[in-house]
Design brief:
The complex is a heterodimer of chains A (about 220) and B (about 180).
Chain A: H1 13-17, H2 23-35, H3 37-54, H4 66-74, H5 82-104, H6 109-115, E1 117-125, H7 135-152, E2 156-161, H8 164-174, E3 184-193, H9 196-204, H10 207-210, E4 214-219
Antiparallel strand pairs in A: 1-3, 1-4, 2-3
Helix pairs in contact in A: 5-7
Chain B: H1 7-18, H2 22-44, H3 46-63, H4 73-91, H5 101-107, H6 115-124, H7 128-139, H8 144-151, H9 155-173
Classes of the chains: A alpha+beta (about 220), B mainly alpha (about 180).
Chain lengths: ~220, ~180
């Protein structure tokens, strides 16, 4: 069934249907429709297609995808790009251990309060951070971070992993865009310090710098 | 028969899932998967739909802690699904090999008799560019400007591909053309 391709109005029927023709064209096409049975018939068919499309409903997968999906959740695969997932995994391991150690040092509220101000260390990581490390090197690095946290004693109030994929997905929910430059914040620490100079001095000793990351130091506004 | 939870039940499941409750995430998945999968299948075809559906839910699982409950979770999830799937479609360069092979395929009907399924099958046989534009415009209600921006084509192409898709799909709806 071939459509007569020579009637130029045939090509405009969808735009007419969607109300997208300029007023002059719209009026002209209406005049044409009065005298052209073929276009009227096509228009009715197009209208039926649009109505049927609106009426399409949900359609479950033919097999249950949940068991497979649940398995992948268990691996906490955070990103469709493997190297990012890997870098995130390395840092998650580091920070998870750190947070645990920091808590285990027994920092008490009264000691912490006596120390004065709190500072936030934002651990930035360049693209590909940690991707070159083998398992043994990872373990060694974990131990270095852990020693650093222990050396701070009660002044390390904790550190947590920031799920890197959240930034990406939050942005994606509105307007998908890659993070600029490939750099991302991989985690944070909160330190207690008497003043800015002491906070900076502690931050400078963090192994994250030697590892190639950078640290943004911010004072937490106390109220 | 998939269970049909209320919007409130889904929102509660989302809250629990955001806190790491996998059983709650399964409830959210089961309550919404048919709609997500329908869109995945229409946009990407039967072969890729399952993997794409899983990808949507893995992203949702990762993004849920950032979900603030400003919208219903079903709305939030559908938007996330749509964005994820459009990106997958765009990556496959739907306009790269726009041929007319689908015109012939159109003549062979599938086994389905119900109008809805006949139409679904006909959509799957559309050329990829026309299919993407049709699904996004006529099923999802997106505007040509948005479709063009997301798929990397001109507004004119989006309009002409929509018209082409509709013309091709007419046959699926007219029983008279069955021999």
């Amino acid at each position: 069934m071939k459509t007569p391709a020579h009637d130029p109005w045939q090509d405009r029927l969808s735009e007419y249907l969607d109300g997208e023709l300029a007023p002059g064209e719209h009026a002209a096409l209406e005049r044409h429709l009065e005298g052209c049975a073929a276009c009227r018939a096509t228009l009715a068919e197009l209208r039926a297609v649009v109505a049927a499309a609106r009426a399409l409903g949900a359609r479950a997968p033919e097999r249950d995808l949940w068991p497979e999906l649940a398995g992948q959740l268990a691996q906490r695969r955070p990103s469709p790009r493997p190297w990012l997932a890997f870098a995130a995994g390395v840092l998650a391991t580091l920070l998870g251990l750190l947070a645990w150690r920091a808590l285990a040092t027994g920092a008490r509220e009264d000691e912490v309060a006596a120390l004065g101000e709190r500072y936030l260390l934002l651990l930035r990581e360049p693209e590909g951070f940690g991707a070159e490390l083998g398992p043994a090197q990872q373990a060694a690095l974990v131990e270095r971070y852990a020693r650093w946290a222990r050396s701070l004693g009660a002044r390390c109030l904790g550190g947590e992993e920031l799920a890197p994929e959240r930034l990406e997905l939050l942005a994606e929910a509105e307007a998908p865009r890659e993070p600029s430059g490939g750099e991302r914040v991989g985690g944070y620490f909160v330190l207690a310090a008497r003043d800015r100079a002491e906070a900076l001095a502690m931050a400078r000793t963090c192994p994250h710098l030697e590892q190639g990351g950078s640290i943004e130091v911010r004072r937490i506004q106390e109220h | 028969m998939p269970f049909a939870p209320s919007a409130d039940e889904l929102d509660r499941a989302a809250q629990a899932a955001a806190a790491g409750d996998r059983a709650a995430f399964e409830r959210l998945y089961r309550g919404t998967v048919a709609r997500v999968h329908a869109l995945a299948r229409r946009l990407l075809g039967a072969r890729e739909a399952e993997e794409a559906t899983q990808e949507v839910y893995l992203r949702a699982w990762a993004a849920l802690p950032g979900f603030r409950g400003e919208a219903r979770v079903a709305t939030w999830l559908h938007r996330l699904a749509r964005n994820t799937l459009i990106n997958l479609v765009a990556r496959a360069e739907p306009f790269a090999r726009a041929g007319d092979e689908a015109l012939e395929a159109q003549a062979e009907r599938g086994a389905a008799t119900e109008t809805r399924l006949v139409l679904e099958e006909a959509i799957e046989r559309l050329p990829s560019g026309a299919r993407a534009v049709f699904v996004l415009h006529d099923v999802e209600g997106l505007l040509h400007e948005e479709i063009a921006a997301r798929l990397g084509c001109s507004v004119g192409t989006s309009k002409s591909q929509l018209h082409r898709a509709r013309l091709l799909l007419r046959a699926a709806l007219s029983p008279a053309s069955t021999p």
